Amino acid sequence: MKLFETVRQESFTTWLKRWGFNFFPAYRGTGAWICFLSSDWQEVHIKLSLKWTTRNYVGTVFGGSLYGALDPLYMVQLINILNSKYVVWDKSATIKFIKPVKQTVIARFLITDELIEQIKEKIKIDKEYVFEFPVEFQDDAGKTYVQVTKQIYVADRDYYRQKQVHPANVP
């Protein structure tokens, strides 16, 4: 189920991957649900609701659920988009809680064709780089409740292997 307007479609393969991801225990524990995963992995829609399993001490959505729901998605998208010529790792994240979440919120992860080309060009030149990816939890009216910036490390796989084996010989 698409939560945002998009021209992208979900394939049977990504539909299966989405269901597998939703029932993977580490992700399931966040309380979030992936509603859409495009066939090219460039777009993901998720939702997170206030339930007894996501409620914190003061009756709003637990911050760990909010962050955990967003945490793995950009890295997994990039791994599937960029292929085996690249190494992709989560590096760090910042989270800003703007308003307490008391209802269902949604988030969209979008990696454009232009961004993919920028990543490939940067890695071709520098061999490795840390990229920033923003994402927000919003309500249906577009009001923002949480902002997260993920820092994702991407490297040329051969360069990364050489760096692991002989760190002193890699600039």
Key structural traits:
6 helices; alpha+beta; globular; single chain; 6 strands; Thiol Ester Dehydrase, Chain A; 171 residues
What does this structure look like?
It is a single chain. With 171 residues, this protein is α+β, with helices and mostly antiparallel strands. It has one domain: Hotdog Thioesterase (Thiol Ester Dehydrase, Chain A, Roll), CATH 3.10.129.10. 33% of the residues lie in helices and 32% in strands. The chain contains six helices and six strands; from the N terminus they run ααββααββαββα. A three-stranded antiparallel sheet has the order 1-2-4. It has a three-stranded antiparallel sheet with strand order 3-6-5. A hairpin with a 5-residue loop joins strand 5 and strand 6. It is globular and about 50 Å long. The relative contact order is 0.16. The mean pLDDT is 94.
Furnish the topology, listing elements before pairings.
Elements (H helix, E strand, L loop, with lengths): L11 H12 L1 H4 L3 E6 L5 E6 L14 H8 L2 H10 L3 E12 L7 E6 L2 H14 L1 E11 L5 E13 H9 L6
Antiparallel strand pairs: 1-2, 2-4, 3-6, 5-6
H/E series: HHEEHHEEHEEH
Shape: globular
CATH topology annotation: Thiol Ester Dehydrase, Chain A
* Overall CATH class: Alpha Beta
Radius of gyration: 17 Å
State the CATH superfamily name. Answer: Hotdog Thioesterase
CATH-scheme architecture: Roll
In percent terms, what proportion of residues is strand?
25-35%
Share of helix, binned: 25-40%
Q: Give me the secondary-structure category.
A: alpha+beta
Measured distance between first and last alpha carbons: 46 Å
